[in-house]
Amino acid sequence: MDLFNEESDGGLNQKQKSDFVNPHEPLATRMRPRSLEEFVGQEHIVGEGKMLRRMIESGVIGSLIFYGPPSSGKTTLAHVISREINAQYVELNAVLDGIKDLRKVVSKAEKVQQMNGRKTILFVDEIHRWNKAQQDALLPHLESGVITLIGATTENPFYSMVSPLLSRCQLFELYDLTRDHVLEMINRALEDEERGLGKKNVEVTDAAKQHLAEYAGGDIRNALNALEVAVLSSDPDEEDVIHIDLDVAKECIQRRGVRYDGTGDEHYHYASAFIKSMRGSDVDAALYWMVAMLEGGEDPNFIFRRMLILASEDVGMADPHALSLVNSAHEAFTKCGMPEGFYFLAHACIYLALAPKSNSAGAIFSVRSEIQHNGIGSVPPHLQDKTANSKQSRYLGVENASDDYKYPHSFDHHWTPQDYLPEEVQNKDWYTPGNIGREGKLWDRLEKIKKAYAKANKGKE
């Protein structure tokens, strides 16, 4: 908010203020890109000739929504844009700030616009956390041009943001940063004498750099923080050189960063990859995506629930025991917990991936569609409850219609031809069995039943 106080900044413009280097700030903060030339990644939107770059270079910036995974550079890019077009910059966090804070921003933005005609860029982090009323509150101020919005979200904006706001913004999707992007920033930090470590006599082996870049998981801040810790915690040698080798790098960043958000789109992407890998009988891929979710902090119970569903939806009658096995593995997990629980997760995952597949249980949705569209037929008389019909037949003095029911166990093979559906749907076949695994044997029995039924009906003609 203080950025709007023209008296407190001595009239400095955005570039002059952001040129100041605070030596007490973390390396990652000092090395934050200040211009498009310094910005790494997202070449598909800020590369030479790309739309967003052309907008920035022209100085004509409309309201924007940046949609992408954590640590992909959404906040940094907003800073770069405000600096490039020399606009006032103010930031709100949708988790902490609301309409009251927005009103303060708008009030000060109006004053700045009247004083010197400068734009005000309002950056709203995690904008998907604002409810409909809060998002709607932005609309009149975007229409009037008092503020230019840059919103950042990790969730699909078409699901998490209101349509009127989306229609007033241009949407840009950001992608995960790669190891090469992180490595570029590591090298830049080591060479930069003003903001980085260039004034220190530091030698970092290629293996150490590669380790930092790989284990950062696409998070530049993570990599630079680890690099700074490595440098500050290492003593120089007799020639005043600080050596950072692979062992030191491993000590400073021991756990590989995992790009996973258990509440956002990544949650659904990973779960989808996990399910599709099991459905496709790729054991290694199924284990990979399952562990990726677990390493990202996913609740194992969620994974078991997905496997229970797949046991019926995709394995189904081809291996009816799959459902019991997954349920037993889940029960064992609740009794033993982690880390032994990994065995039960793997047991269920491997079994489902290797099991024969059938989606015939989905026949229930075909039947449901039939009933929803055409209603429910009457229960054939011979299938009706005999006791209830007995009371009716005695009262009316008629025969009990249920007496025509044929008890299957009284016949050979415990089966006899008989109609079980209402007359209007007797020729429907909703269930289409597979011929794999256990269902193949059940299919053979069904075929024999159908042939016997057809023969019996033919004899009636």
Structure description:
The protein is of the alpha/beta class and 461 residues long. The protein contains 22 helices and seven strands. The strands form two sheets. Strands 2-3-4-1-5 form a five-stranded parallel beta sheet, with helices on both faces. The chain has a two-stranded parallel ribbon with strand order 6-7. Strand 2, helix 6 (99-116) and strand 3 (120-125) form a beta-alpha-beta unit. The model is unreliable at 1-14 (pLDDT under 50).
Helix-strand layout with pairing:
Blueprint: H1 14-19, H2 27-30, H3 43-46, H4 51-58, E1 64-67, H5 74-84, E2 88-93, H6 99-116, E3 120-125, H7 132-136, H8 139-144, E4 148-153, H9 157-160, H10 163-167, E5 170-173, H11 179-191, E6 202-204, H12 206-215, H13 220-232, E7 242-244, H14 246-252, H15 265-279, H16 283-295, H17 300-315, H18 321-336, H19 341-354, H20 363-374, H21 386-396, H22 438-460
Parallel strand pairs: 1-4, 1-5, 2-3, 3-4, 6-7
Q: How would you characterize the largest beta sheet?
A: 5 strands, parallel
Which secondary-structure class do the elements indicate?
Answer: alpha/beta
Walk across the major sheet and give the strand order: 2-3-4-1-5
Cα radius of gyration in angstroms: 33 Å
Gross geometry: elongated
Number of helices: 22
Order of helices and strands: HHHHEHEHEHHEHHEHEHHEHHHHHHHHH
| End-to-end C-alpha gap | 89 Å
